[in-house]
Amino acid sequence: MADTVFGTTAAGETVHRLMLGSGELSVALLTHGAVMQDVRLAGVPHSLTVGSPEMAAYEDKMASCGALMGPVVNRITDATVEIDGQTYELEKNFLGKHTIHGGAAAFHHRVWEIVDQGPDHAELRLTLADGEGGLPGNRAFTALFEIRPPSTIRMTLRTETDAPTPVNLANHSYWRLDDAPTVKGHVLQVAADRYTPRNDDTELLPTGEIADVTGTRFDFRQGRELVDGAEGLIDNNLCLGDRRVPLRPVAWLTGQSGLRMEMATTEPGLQVFDGHILGLPFMGNDGAEYVPYAAVALEAQFWPDAPTHPNFPDITLRPGEDWEQITEWRFLKE
What whole-number distance in Å separates Cα of residue 233 and Cα of residue 249? Predict the structure, then answer.
């Protein structure tokens, strides 16, 4: 496995780029943010994910691209969490009143430690001290990335804590299966019969309702073409279940070229984000800047804003409990 220096953060930390490969699939992994920076499949002349060769991009508006998000991904209403009757005040880093992606403790702004590596795998580790990000518990997180036949990325996430604390993690890769400016014409299928409506297009907070997808634009059960925003903003959680379960396929993305990605996860939710923000002034993996809707994000996680909604699956991790997420991406050519 190739291990090279990718760059240096503004704080002077060295960021490594780890090249993993097996068979036809290769993945470039950054220690900054545990980012899947580049994904390549033999015979496909373009990167399958949004990434950049510029370190500056990952300390700016591309920070979430390919990153592992946590310690609590997505938004938390009013930047407060109650655990066992005690209220914790979090950083108000979203619209000045809510929390998003963990605030100052956010994974995608941290450099992870390499704890194991080989030609087809790498394991990274990050620790957060009690009170960091406003949340309780000395917490340890590990992320194992493996390339498995046939043409599959497996990500295994584990967490430990010494005090009750909320945990919700997600990989935030954007996927693009055609060599085209946008993902218009890609077909997305998701095995979800419910979704969590949000309050508006600005705050993007779940209302607490759990709604049937039937008759809505969030019904992807039979597969639907993506349309570059023509149906309105998509940044919603689709409900795959009510709890963590054994690994199973949940989503399928197919490009017009016939290239197909099957996504499997243990998690009960999938946040689908349409990528409208991707018009960014940084060089992409294939040498050009991305445009809005260049790719779509499919983020396996627990349902967002769970601490605010008791009817959502609980994300509180307690000392001694096992916490493990497994998510896979498998690529298939016609």
Answer: 25
Give the pLDDT confidence of 186-203 residue by residue, as tens digits: 999 999 999 999 999 999
Q: What is the mean pLDDT of residues 163-176?
A: 98
Q: Are 265 and 330 in contact (CB under 8 A)?
A: no
How many other CB atoms sit within 10 Å of the CB of residue 320?
Answer: 8
How many residues are listed for the chain in this entry? 334
What pTM does this model have?
Answer: 0.97
User: 330: which 2 tokens?
Assistant: 């498998």
Question: SS3 for the chain, per residue?
Answer: CEEEEEEECCCCCEEEEEEEEECCEEEEEECECCEEEEEEECCCCCCCECCCCCHHHHCCCCCCCCCEECCECCEEHHHEEEECCEEEECCCCECCCEEECCHHHCHHHCECEEEEEECCEEEEEEEECCCHHHCCCCEEEEEEEEEECCCEEEEEEEEEECCCEECECEECCEECCCCCCCCCCCEEEECCCEEECECCCCCCCECCCCEECCCCCCCCCCCEECCCCCCCCCEEEEECCCCCCCCEEEEEEECCCCCEEEEEECCCEEEEECCCCCCCCCECCCCCECCCCCCEEEEEECCCCHHHCCCCCCCEECCCCCCEEEEEEEEECC
pLDDT tens, 94-136? 999 999 999 989 999 999 999 999 999 999 999 999 999 999 9
| Cα–Cα dist 120/137, whole Å | 33
Q: What is the pLDDT of residues 233-271, one digit of tens each?
A: 999 999 999 999 999 999 999 999 999 999 999 999 999
Q: What is the pLDDT of residue 2?
A: 80
What are 274's two structure tokens? 């349409």
Residue 1 has pLDDT above 70, yes or no: no
Antiparallel, parallel or unpaired: β 35-41 and 248-254? unpaired
Structural domains present in the chain: 2-332 (2.70.98.10)
Q: 150: burial class by Cβ within 10 Å (0-12, 13-18, 19+)?
A: exposed
